[in-house]
Design a protein that fits this description.
CATH superfamily of the largest domain: HUPs
Radius of gyration: 21 Å
Order of helices and strands: EHEHHEHHHHEHEHHHHH
Strand content: 5-15%
Shape: globular
Number of strands: 5
Strand order of the largest sheet: 1-2-3
Number of helices: 13
CATH topology of the largest domain: Rossmann fold
Largest sheet: 3 strands, parallel
Helix content: 40-55%
Bound molecules: tryptophanyl-5'AMP
């Protein structure tokens, strides 16, 4: 039996190359070796206010992005979270064994709710429990994510261990899969911050659907560090970030990248990086509209059916072990 993968992304904002290089790229690379479930997590999206009409559209757009990135519906299960109600049901059970203190320590809640904890939504606070439910329902072995999700994965493991201890062996303990390069792509405008869908400044991110002109301008305007060498150097986070993007987009080794730009300046490097990004995204953007609405709906319907079968089995066991059934 193949081992199982689960991962997902939120249908909010626009996906950027950080999402691709940190997560989607690995989803695609791992789908042959594993039985993969890739979810569009629309229930997570409403932890912050969303425009209802846009949310539905973005949910379907994100499915197209998964497909364009190379997730193959013949190999992997692609589905919308709300089509499988077990996600919300297991969240309730898990929230009853989650401690307030554990959720208070989640840095994402602290970041997103920090302006006003009094007014922050309860959903934003309990969000990591829903994420744990997503993963545990599928008896997941491996979860490919970027660095920012590591703490949520640790909570997921703790909850699974606690449930197994208190109610008997039920959940598999999942492992995170965080890539060595690309796990935290930084903003082009501020390399101390991660590239983020919710960044107010669009110049910090290269979006997967940006056109050639926008990509070139954003890379030209990207901040750089002092010094002129084009090398990987932790004390120069801006160039290290740009070079990491170049490395991952071109598939070259670190050494080849450094050698390639030896003796060249920022102007030359940025022009080549922009070209690499444009060339990389062009075929991706052509594939985004490959599926008509009817075929997309069929893929999502089949995905939800496959996911439901697994999720219902796990939830049934959870209900039996806890005395609900
Ligand atoms: P989301 O939608 O914010 O991001 C989707 C994926 O992209 C990764 N990522 C990055 N990787 C590298 N550099 C960056 N700058 C960067 N920004 C984002 C994220 O780590 C993520 O892997 N909570 C999740 C969605 C989720 C999920 C799950 C993931 C819900 N349930 C279960 C895995 C398993 C989130 O908000 O991702």
């Amino acid at each position: 039996m193949k081992k199982r993968i689960f991962s997902g992304a939120q249908p909010t904002g626009s996906l950027h190359i950080g999402n691709y290089l940190g997560a989607l790229k690995n989803w695609v690379a791992l789908q042959d070796e594993y039985e993969a479930f890739y979810c569009i997590v629309n229930l997570h999206a409403i932890t912050l206010p969303q425009d209802p009409k846009t949310l539905r559209q973005k949910t379907l757009d994100l499915a197209r992005i998964y497909l364009a990135a190379g997730v193959d519906p013949e190999k992997s299960t692609i589905f919308i979270q709300s089509d499988v109600p077990e996600h919300a049901e297991l969240t309730w059970v898990l929230s009853c064994i989650t401690r307030m203190g554990e959720l208070e320590r989640m840095t994402q809640f602290k970041d997103k709710g920090k302006e006003n904890t009094e007014r922050a939504g309860v959903g934003l606070f309990t969000y990591p429990v829903l994420m744990a439910a997503d993963i545990l329902l599928y008896q997941t072995d491996l979860v490919p994510v970027g660095q920012d999700q590591k703490q949520h994965l640790e909570l997921t493991r703790d909850l699974a261990e606690r449930f197994n201890r208190d109610f008997g062996e039920t959940f598999k303990i999942p492992e995170p899969y965080i890539p060595k390069a690309g796990a935290s792509i930084k903003s082009l405008q501020d390399p101390s911050k991660k590239m983020s869908k919710s960044d107010d400044n669009p110049n910090g991110s290269i979006f997967l659907l940006d056109d050639a002109d926008a990509i070139t301008k954003k890379i030209k305007r990207a901040v750089t560090d002092s010094g002129t060498d084009i090398t990987f150097d932790e004390s120069r986070p801006a160039i290290t970030n740009l070079l990491t993007i170049y490395q991952l987009l071109t598939g070259k080794s670190r050494e080849d990248c450094v050698e390639h730009f030896a003796g060249k300046g920022y102007g030359h490097f940025k022009a080549e990086l922009a070209e690499a990004a444009v060339e990389f995204l062009r075929p991706f953007q052509e594939r985004v509209n490959e599926y008509d609405d009817a075929s997309l709906n069929t893929i999502l319907k089949n995905g939800a059916e496959k996911a439901s079968a697994v999720a219902a089995f796990t939830l049934d066991q959870v209900y039996k072990r806890t005395g609900i059934k």
